[in-house]
Design goal:
single chain; alpha+beta; two-stranded parallel ribbon; 3 helices
């Protein structure tokens, strides 16, 4: 993650939320990023979810909170102008 230009996180939605494995990845990588300092600064991030029933908004929001946490990886989205 430290050497990439961007990160795409994806998860199926089970019981109206992302999987426990994705939650663990998000929590551990964020704590590591804080310890190292600015590991995710100015990186592009995107969330992808697969859903059949309810929980799409909550799952998408869970991943996006990680992408916007601290040094905000998704700053590029604000800079892209859609004609």
């Amino acid at each position: 993650m430290a050497e990439t230009d961007g990160i795409i996180l994806g998860s199926p939605i089970y019981f109206a939320d992302i999987t426990t494995e994705m939650k663990a990845l998000i929590e551990r990588s964020e704590m590591t990023a804080q310890a190292i300092g600015s590991m995710f600064k100015r990186k592009v991030g995107a969330a992808v979810i697969a859903v059949r029933r309810g929980g799409a908004i909550h799952g998408f929001d869970s991943i996006n909170h990680f992408l916007h946490f601290g040094e905000n990886m998704a700053w590029v989205l604000k800079k892209i102008a859609v004609p």
